[in-house]
């Protein structure tokens, strides 16, 4: 068997997705997600210009060898663009292998370790009453665990509270290329946030009781000292986790946080390789590893990361917002079902159009996901419908303090 074609499909059924489709001489196809939110076209070029020519003629069953040759053979290792491109190849090849075997992918990872995959959803509000309504809405949808984010009094726009991505409107000729599609600028004040969050968690616990697993994302905005103090202050609200409390490329900074709080910590959605986690895992500085299949080089390295994390009793929590396409999400759910040290899966759903463009076997029911029993990852791309929704330039927001200084977003 050999690879005869590999194409990169960019579409925007509500938001931008980059999909790699690999085809074999026997007509078997595999899909991989290469979406890097806000920098999508850099991965498109990396794949089309530098990776696709290397794939033609290869044996699609040699997944590990192909992964290693793309990682080591480029000489320039790591980084989100490189690892998103490699991830797309990796997942597409696993999709092909499982289709040839006639099995859902999780069976090739050792089979199911659980019956279904627990998720958490996103609740957000501009203020506390709106947040409580949003939590009620998630519970009504079946979610059993909820991430809570609110606006902060005195700040106009805060992470997690509004859409968060600017998408250019279509022009008269239907081509959505608009120089005005610039990043939304949000504002930030760490002091206001740290004074407000305990009040938010107090209100949520008062309304929903002690049993509802609650998560919160600080989105890389605190120094280790601030994170240590906040984690200690909110211990009484018994969070499932505090996420991205400080920019974690400063891995040793987590020592300070860990010394001062028992609030569980989750980190890693912007990480690309196991080396980003080395201190965090070796020294047990976190409780959950958050990398996405799509940004970590695929399911092959993510399985290794989870095995490494298991040696320190650290669990998985795969990143899964709306900008991970249903292809990347499906791959994640197969892995979630199979590994032993599964923690939780982030899942915020998709627009009806996205579900139509990416027809998938995975299901969401009663707050849990299941990958389904279709051979492969269980996703097929409607290329005609995808083509009807072309790429639309979009950025993630940026963040500034009151005096105009850029802050972590
Ligand atoms: Mg996050």
Automatic annotation (TrEMBL):
The protein's GO terms of the molecular function aspect are:
magnesium ion binding; mannonate dehydratase activity
Q: Please indicate if the UniProt record lists Cell cycle as a keyword.
A: no
**EC numbers, comma separated:** 4.2.1.8
Q: Which residues form the signal peptide?
A: none
Q: Could you tell me which residue ranges the Mandelate racemase/muconate lactonizing enzyme C-terminal domain spans?
A: 128-264
UniProt record, GO biological process: amino acid catabolic process; carbohydrate catabolic process
The record, for Pfam families, names: MR_MLE_C (PF13378), MR_MLE_N (PF02746)
Query: Could you tell me which species this protein originates from?
Result: Catenuloplanes indicus
**Top-rank EC class of the record's enzyme:** lyase
Recorded protein name is Mannonate dehydratase
Keyword Lyase recorded = yes
Q: Which UniProt keywords apply?
A: Lyase
């Amino acid at each position: 068997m050999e690879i005869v074609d590999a194409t990169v499909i960019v579409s925007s059924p509500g938001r931008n997705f980059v999909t790699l489709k690999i085809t074999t001489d026997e007509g078997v196809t595999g899909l991989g997600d290469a979406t890097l939110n806000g920098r999508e076209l850099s991965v498109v070029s990396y794949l089309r210009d530098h990776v696709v020519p290397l794939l033609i003629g290869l044996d699609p069953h040699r997944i590990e060898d192909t992964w290693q040759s793309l990682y080591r053979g480029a000489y320039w290792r790591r980084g989100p663009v490189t690892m998103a491109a490699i991830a797309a190849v990796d997942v597409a090849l696993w999709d092909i292998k499982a289709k040839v075997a006639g099995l859902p992918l999780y069976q090739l990872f050792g089979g199911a370790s659980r019956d279904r995959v627990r998720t958490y959803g996103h609740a957000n509000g501009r203020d506390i009453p709106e947040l409580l309504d949003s939590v009620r809405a998630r519970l009504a949808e079946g979610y059993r665990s909820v991430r809570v984010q609110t606006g902060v009094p005195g700040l106009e726009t805060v992470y997690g509270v509004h859409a968060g991505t600017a998408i250019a409107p279509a022009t008269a000729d239907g081509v959505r290329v608009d120089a005005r599609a610039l990043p939304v600028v949000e504002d930030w004040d760490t002091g206001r946030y740290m004074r407000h969050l305990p009040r938010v968690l107090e209100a949520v616990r008062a309304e929903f009781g002690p049993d509802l697993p609650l998560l919160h994302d600080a989105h890389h905005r605190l120094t280790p000292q601030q994170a240590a103090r906040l984690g200690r202050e909110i211990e009484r609200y018994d969070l499932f986790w505090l996420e991205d409390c400080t920019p974690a490329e400063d891995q040793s900074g987590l020592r300070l946080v860990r010394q001062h709080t028992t609030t569980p910590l989750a980190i890693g959605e912007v990480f690309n390789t196991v080396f980003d986690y080395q201190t965090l895992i070796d020294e047990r500085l976190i409780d959950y590893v958050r990398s996405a299949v799509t940004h970590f080089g695929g399911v092959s390295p993510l399985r290794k990361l989870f095995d490494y994390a298991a040696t320190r009793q650290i669990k998985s929590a795969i990143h899964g917002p709306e900008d991970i396409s249903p292809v990347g999400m499906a791959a994640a759910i197969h892995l979630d079902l199979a590994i032993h040290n599964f923690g939780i899966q982030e899942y915020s759903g998709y627009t009806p159009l996205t579900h139509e463009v990416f027809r998938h076997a995975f299901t969401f029911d009663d707050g849990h996901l299941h990958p389904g029993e279709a051979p492969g990852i269980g996703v097929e791309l409607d290329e005609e419908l995808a083509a009807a929704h072309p790429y639309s330039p979009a950025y993630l927001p940026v963040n500034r303090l009151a005096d105009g200084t850029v802050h972590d977003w």
